[in-house]
Each structure stands twice: as structure tokens, then as C-alpha cells.
Design goal:
Layout: H1 2-27, H2 30-49, H3 52-90, H4 94-145, H5 152-168, H6 173-181, H7 185-212, H8 216-221, H9 226-268, H10 273-283, H11 290-305, H12 307-332, H13 341-355, H14 357-384, H15 392-405
Length: 406
């Protein structure tokens, strides 16, 4: 009997040891669980990659709807504060305010088409016709800076870059590039049709966003279980705050940058002041890089005019950067969406590589939205697993409590 009992005890101990080993090394191991989760995610991505035909209708829908929705969303964040203010302060119906805003926008667009667009068109055509001469002057100036024998390789690379850019920007070359990039007449008609659809449907989407957009979060969370509604609604609120701050701030800064460059170039007597100011405003939508890219045509034009004009262009650039960095950006953007410059550059590189020019423009707000979602989930995960994330003060309290218990 004693021999049988000892055998049973040894078997039970061996079973406990094997169970505890499996629990400690597999079930209770964060590394093993993390690797399993990563493996499952990669398997899902692999399977979905083999089933692209499932997402082709969704891709078509997104390509059709994306542009008018983005345009309507941008104008929504610009106009919605005015609509909310008139409704709360003067108790004016939202539909009446929206109609009045649409009438004003239509008048501004008509004025721009009648007076501003012809000036921009004339300056653009003249600037493109004269650009090869400006670029040749800029090339000679840059190559002269690298004329030393030890910099011959760099000089050859700059010369090759110049030849490619110069050939592309010669009169007629840039215009003929577009038809070559399109495969057939059908693709041209398709793109023109999509632009027309975007222009026509964007105002309709904007109208209903302004009229009923404040009820959209409640409608979306109504499909979720009750215990998730409040949290998801807070996520929507944070995303809306991030997007509104970014869009209003960036567009406000871009408008003032365009205005400052236009006035500065007019004061120093630089040609195409209005066109260069508008280019600077649009490029300023690209964080950290836009203003410097906008200086390339201005520097080329100033260098072609005279060395003294180049100095005046650089002075305008320094004054604009000082006012923008010390006064305009802090005043308009405030402390919202303060990302590290390296983070922004990384986001711009990745989004630009994946989505092109559109990715460069929407990369930072898209990153802000993803950051809100990930931060919210991470905060929930920390609350659900308090033992995994112990702060220094809490850890000291736990150690003291253990010492007292002992």
C-alpha cells in the first residue's frame, strides 16, 4: 500500500510540475503571448492579402467618396464654429445660418473667378515660360559653390538633377507630361468626371454635416453595447478636437503666411508676388518643409533679377519665419498637436511614400487620430492590468506594505 501511495504521490507531483511549467512558460509569459498575438496578426494580414478581390468594391467606394468627404470635412471645421455661435448666442436656426454662409462663399468664389483667377493664370503662364532661365541661373550659382576639386561628384549629381528638372519644366514639357501619364481617353474622362462629382457633391455633404453633424457621434455609438458607448463617444470627441485644432490652425497659418509673403514680395518689388505668395501658403500645409520648398522659386527669381534682389528675398524669408515661429503659430496653434519634429518628418516620409502628395497633406492629422485611438486603448489596458504598470510611488508603497506584513 505504501508503495502504491508513493507512486501516486510522485505522479501527482510530476503532473503539478508539468502543469506549472506550462503555465509559467507559455500561459503566464508575456513574451510568449505577445509572439502569439503577432503571429496571429501576420496570419490575418497574409490571408487578407490573398483575398484582395473582397476589398475591391470597398476601394472603389473610397476612391469615389474620399475627395468630396475630405473637402466637406475641411470646410465643416472652418464654418461650424460660426454656425454654433449664431445658434447659441442669437438662437438663429442652423439652416438659415448655413444658407447665408453658402451665399457669401458663392459670392467670394464668383469674385475670385472674375478678378483673382485671371491674374494668377497670367502670372503662372509667364512664370512657367521663363522658369528654365531662372533655373539655369540658380544652377550656375549652386554649382559655383561646389567648384572645388573634392566636390566634383556632388557637382555632377547636381548637374544631372538640374537636367532632369529643367527638361521637365521647359515650356510645353510639363503640359505634355499629363497626357502621357494617362493611359487612354477613358481615364481622362473618368478623372474629369470624378472632379466634377466632387465639386458638386461636396457642398451637399457640407450642408448636412453642418446641419446634423453634431448628432453623428450619438448615432454611431447607438450601435454599440451600453457599456462601451461613453468611452467611444469620448474617443470621438478627442478625435474631433484634434482634427479641428489642426485644420483650423494650419489653414489659418497658411493664409497668413501667403499674405506675408505676398506683401513682402510686393514691397521689395519681386515679380509674380501674388503667385509666389499663394504657392508659399499651399506648401506651408506641409509641416517644417513647406516654407523652405516655397523659397526655391523665389530664390531662383531673385538670383536671376540681381544679387541685391536675392538678398532682399532672403530678408523677407527671415522676417516671415520669425513672425510665423514667434507670433503666428503660437497664437493660432497654441499647445495643440505638439509633436516632435522627428515624429512629423517620419510621418511625412511614410505617408508620402504610401499615398503620395495627399498622404503628405493628411499624414499628420491621420497620425493624430491614430494617436488618440492608441492612447485611449493603452490607458484602458493599463487600468485593466494595474500590476503590469506600477509607478515608482506605488511600487514603494507596495514594498512598504509587504515589509509591514512580514
Amino acid at each position: 500500500m505504501e508503495g502504491k501511495d508513493s507512486k501516486v504521490t510522485k505522479k501527482s507531483e510530476a503532473g503539478k510540475w508539468s502543469a506549472s511549467w506550462f503555465f509559467n512558460w507559455i500561459v503566464n509569459s508575456r513574451l510568449a503571448i505577445s509572439l502569439l498575438v503577432i503571429l496571429l496578426v501576420l496570419l490575418v494580414i497574409l490571408v487578407l492579402g490573398k483575398m484582395k478581390w473582397i476589398f475591391s468594391p470597398l476601394t472603389i467606394i473610397l476612391n469615389t467618396v474620399a475627395m468630396p468627404v475630405i473637402l466637406a470635412g475641411v470646410f465643416y471645421y472652418l464654418i461650424n464654429p460660426l454656425v454654433d455661435w449664431t445658434e447659441k448666442k442669437y438662437h438663429v436656426r442652423r439652416s438659415l445660418t448655413i444658407t447665408g454662409v453658402f451665399v457669401i462663399l458663392a459670392l467670394l468664389i464668383a469674385w475670385g473667378i472674375g478678378s483673382l483667377i485671371p491674374v494668377i493664370q497670367t502670372q503662372t503662364q509667364e512664370f512657367l515660360n521663363n522658369w528654365p532661365e531662372y533655373w539655369d541661373k540658380l544652377e550656375k550659382f549652386i554649382l559655383g559653390l561646389f567648384s572645388a576639386d573634392g566636390l566634383k561628384d556632388l557637382q555632377n549629381k547636381l548637374a544631372s538633377i538640374n537636367s532632369e528638372v529643367g527638361d521637365f519644366l521647359k515650356p510645353g514639357k510639363a503640359i505634355s507630361f499629363l497626357p502621357k501619364s494617362l493611359n487612354s481617353l477613358g481615364s481622362i474622362i473618368s478623372r474629369v468626371t470624378s472632379v466634377i462629382i466632387s465639386v458638386v457633391t461636396a457642398p451637399l455633404i457640407l450642408f448636412y454635416l453642418l446641419k446634423d453633424g453634431h448628432d453623428l457621434p450619438d448615432y454611431l455609438v447607438s450601435f454599440l453595447p451600453n457599456r462601451y458607448r461613453l468611452g467611444v463617444k469620448d474617443v470621438f470627441k478627442s478625435m474631433n478636437t484634434q482634427l479641428s485644432n489642426y485644420i483650423r490652425g494650419q489653414l489659418g497659418v497658411a493664409f497668413l503666411v501667403a499674405l506675408m509673403f505676398w506683401i513682402g514680395y510686393m514691397i521689395i518689388g519681386l515679380k509674380y508676388a501674388l503667385l509666389l505668395g499663394i504657392i508659399a501658403g499651399f506648401l506651408n500645409l506641409i509641416p517644417y518643409l513647406g516654407s523652405f520648398l516655397a523659397m526655391v522659386p523665389a530664390v531662383a527669381l531673385g538670383l536671376f533679377t540681381s544679387p541685391f534682389m536675392l538678398v532682399k528675398v532672403l530678408i523677407v524669408f527671415v522676417i516671415e519665419q520669425t513672425l510665423e515661429g514667434r507670433l503666428i503659430s503660437p497664437l493660432i496653434l497654441g499647445n495643440s498637436m505638439k509633436f516632435h519634429p522627428l515624429t512629423v518628418l517620419f510621418v511625412l516620409l511614410v505617408s508620402g511614400k504610401i499615398f503620395g502628395l495627399l498622404g503628405v497633406i493628411i499624414g499628420v492629422p491621420g497620425y493624430a487620430v491614430l494617436k488618440v485611438i492608441v492612447s485611449t486603448y493603452f490607458d484602458w489596458f493599463k487600468r485593466s492590468h494595474p500590476n503590469l504598470y506600477v509607478t515608482g510611488q506605488t511600487e514603494n508603497k507596495i514594498i512598504i506594505q509587504k515589509d509591514d506584513d512580514q
